[in-house]
Design goal:
The protein is an alpha+beta fold. The chain folds into two domains: 142 residues, no CATH class; 86 residues, Roll (Pdz3 Domain), CATH 2.30.42. Strands 1, 2, 3, 4, 5, 6 and 7 form a seven-stranded mixed β-sheet that branches. β11 and β12 form a beta hairpin.
Length: 235
Amino acid sequence: MTQRNDALLAILAGCMSMASSAQALAEPQYMFTPPHSKLELKLAPRDVSSVQVLEATPQRSLVDLGQLAIKGDATSTREELVAFARAKAAERGADFLRISSKSGEMTMHSYAPSGGVTGFGFQRRQSAQVLNTAQMLWVQLGAVPKAALGLEFMDRMLTAARIVVKGFKPVSKAAEAGVMIGDEIVAVEGFALDGDDARYEMWKLEGQPGQVAHVSVRREGTVLSLNVPLVANIE
């Protein structure tokens, strides 16, 4: 997330450097970054008022729709930027937007590294080379499926990105279906969970409680096929 934010900041900073610092912005500037998938999800637009604004990520099973980096001018308020973010989230069919703690006021400054190449960037503190001030808002867009497998997973930073079961939610029927703690989920309905194909995420959004999912798990080097009933997607 930090690397993505830094890249977006650099691009937005470049846009600012080409405009006069005294020029008023008609509306916030923004950039949308899709999730790490070869196929961006296309969801139907929804009513703006139905898009929830969250400060923390829900504990339910979610579908990542991407990230917005929004830049207002020095007079922009947080409320104005959030309203703008909700409108953009609604256009993409998001159920919610989650506001990053990195959001807030930043200053644009110039710098000259030891190599002699000048550039532009954002920082939270003042400097002698301040060029402009901006209000930044980072938001994650997401959708909430109606159904889920009812599984809890280990931190993928600790599993080399593998999706490994660490527990079951109270309503889950996965244990009864044969899933065990320590199993690696490798596919659901034939869709690999490698982040390169959005068809699994779309299937999650279409799934209903009571539907049976065909789940492939790797256990001690052997891949097993299990039929796991979906349950209501609750916290």
